[in-house]
Amino acid sequence: MKLHLPRRLRRLRRTENIRRMVRETHLHASDLIWPLFVQEGAEVTPVDSMPGVFRNSVESLVRCCQEAEQWGIPAVAVFPSIPQSLKDPAGSHAFSPENLLFRAVRAVKEKCPDLVVITDIALDPYTSHGHDGLLSPDGTTVDNDSTVEVLCRLAVMEAQAGADMVAPSDMMDGRIGAIRNALDEAGYSDIAIIAYSAKFASALYGPFRDAVGSKIGKDAVSKATYQLDPANRREACIEAETDEKECADMLMVKPALYYLDIIREICDKSSVPVAAYQVSGEYSQIQAAAKLGWLDYERMRNESLIAIKRAGADLILTYFAREVAEEISLGRFGR
Question: Which residues carry out catalysis?
C-alpha cells in the first residue's frame, strides 16, 4: 500500500547531515561547569562511588583547571574534602585563614586568572554532624537565622580568596538577600550569586557525600527540614521566584534529570540564567549501567546532557564536563 502523505516528517531524518541541519538543541563547552574536589596533601585519590572522579591535591586541581581552559570550559565549581579531625558542630574550620578551599581558590586564580571559580556556601564539609548549617539548641534541625549569619561571613571570605561566584547550597530562608547585602557591604558588589534555588532532598547525593566526607555513619543524614520535598513543584517555583527577588544572579535546580519539569518551569518564569546540576548519583548511575554492559556509555551520557539542555538549562554542572568539552572541541560529540 502506498500512502498519500504530502507531509512526511521522516524526510528530515533521512541522513546524518540532514539530521544535523535541523537539530534543535545543541550543547557547547561554554554551557558546562566542571565540579572538582580538592583534599589536603599531595595525593590524588579516586572517589570509589564515582568512576573517573578524583579528590585532587591543590596542585592537581590547578592542572584540571588548566585543562578546563584548554577545552573551552568557562567555569569550575570547587568542593573541599576536609579531614575529620578539623570538623566540629559549628563548622568553625570554614572560617580559618588556612581553610583548604581558600588556599585552593588562590592557587587556581594565580595560574588561571580568567577561569571562573565558583565556591559553595554551606557548612556540611566542615560540620561533624554533616548538616549544612548550625543546629538548633535541641539538635533536631538546622537553625535558619544563625546559619544565615555565618554563611554571610563565609561568602565574604570566599570572595576575599578570589572566588568569582558564590553558590549558597544550604536552602535557608532569606539567605540570598542577606549574602548579597554582606558582599556589597564588604566591597564585593561584583561577585555573582548562583542560588541553589530548587535543591531537593534527593537520594542521589550519596556519592558526593562520599567525595567530600560529609556522610556521617552508614545512614544518610536527613536534610528534609530544609531541602525541598521531591513531590513539590509549586514550592520549587516559589523558592526560585523568591531567590530572584532577593537578587540572585543565577538560579539552580538540583538534581537535574529527575527534575526536568522543574527546570522547564523555572526557565519559563525566570528572567535570569538557570543552571542545572547533574549530580553525583546521576553520573554514577550512567557509569554503573555502562560498566555492566546494560547501556551504551557515550550515547547515554550525551542523551542525558541534551535532555537537560532541552529542558531549558543555560548551564550544566556535570562531572562529564571535561571529556564532553574535549569531544565537542574535536567535533566528535554526538557523532
Answer: 199, 254
